[in-house]
Design brief:
elongated; 14 helices; single chain; mainly alpha
Length: about 300
């Protein structure tokens, strides 16, 4: 029979190849269309429908049928493989966009926390220093807006304004020193919003002053004492990064760890405490030794 039908003999070796291709085709289909149905593709590849029967069967019919099946399978495998690669690329692009959106949302939340300090402190500073020429400018002349109306609703009482006005404002030949000391006195008297406004004013007007390290550190403490650990952490980190040799850089590292504990970021707090011990060993074992030990204990550092 083989000798009398050479076409059938050639078709025999192709059968395993066709079965293998059909198996791969079904695997690719399951990969591209999980839970697929007949809406997307036929469950199996069928050979082309046989034509009307004739009085005789061509010897080349089995080989032709197998070749058609091979061509069909190879074409569909190529198409589905391309679809798989395209889907993978689109998924990667979506993951990148999601990461960008998450980062933007985090930055927006941090910026909102840093800007949460009440603006009323600036108004009070201007009123307390009226005529002195060294305090923050008053914002009373600004046109009313919905935001301004909201701030006005939370404006301090006359008693508080009178109490703030009693805080003595230094007036020497060093305007930067005077601005810092006035902020310190406000903080010491527990007028925290007013102290924050005054210290921000000091940094804005005297960014290169010898007291800049003191000013940033004290501003961070004013935020921390006012229940704003996120804004405080940002200020302490900024002070350490901008002036690692500044007079209050070690204190800023300690208070950074303290703020991170309040934010429930204890692992990061331990990193800050370790940095303090490594970069400023004399301070860590000296004036900040007790605070550092307490901070590590609160953070659960090993």
């Amino acid at each position: 029979m083989v000798a009398s039908n050479p076409a059938a003999a050639q078709a025999a070796p192709l059968e395993p190849r066709v079965k293998k291709l059909e198996s791969e085709m079904r695997a690719v289909q399951r990969k591209v269309f999980p839970g697929a149905s007949d809406r997307f593709f036929e469950p199996e590849i069928s050979a082309p429908a046989a034509g009307p029967s004739t009085t005789g069967v061509s010897a080349s019919a089995p080989l032709t049928d197998l070749l058609q099946r091979v061509d069909t399978l190879e074409t569909q495998i190529t198409r589905l493989t391309a679809q798989t690669e395209e889907n993978g690329f689109k998924l990667g692009q979506l993951e990148k966009r999601l990461a960008v959106l998450e980062d933007q949302a985090k930055q927006a939340a941090d910026a909102a926390a840093a800007a949460a300090a009440p603006a009323a402190g600036t108004v009070l500073g201007g009123m307390a220093g009226a005529g002195a020429g060294a305090g923050p400018a008053s914002s009373a002349s600004r046109p009313a807006t919905p935001a301004a109306a909201s701030t006005a609703a939370a404006a301090p009482s006359a008693e508080r304004i009178a109490a703030v006005s009693k805080i003595e404002k230094p007036q020497t030949a060093d305007a930067g020193e005077d601005a810092y000391l006035y902020g310190y006195r406000l903080w010491e008297a527990k007028f925290l919003p007013e102290a924050q406004a005054q210290l921000r004013f000091t940094l804005e007007k005297h960014p290169k002053h010898k007291r800049s390290s003191y000013t940033r550190n004290l501003l961070g403490r004013a935020y921390l004492d006012d229940g704003k650990p996120s804004a405080a952490a940002k200020m302490f980190a900024e002070n350490y990064e901008k002036e690692p040799k500044g007079d209050r850089a070690p204190e800023s590292l300690y208070f950074l760890g303290d703020a991170l504990v309040k934010l429930n970021e204890k692992a990061k707090a331990c990193v800050a405490f370790a940095e303090l011990a490594e970069v400023y060993p004399d301070v860590a074992t000296g004036r900040l030794s007790d605070r550092l030990a307490t901070g590590r204990r609160n953070a659960g550092c090993k």
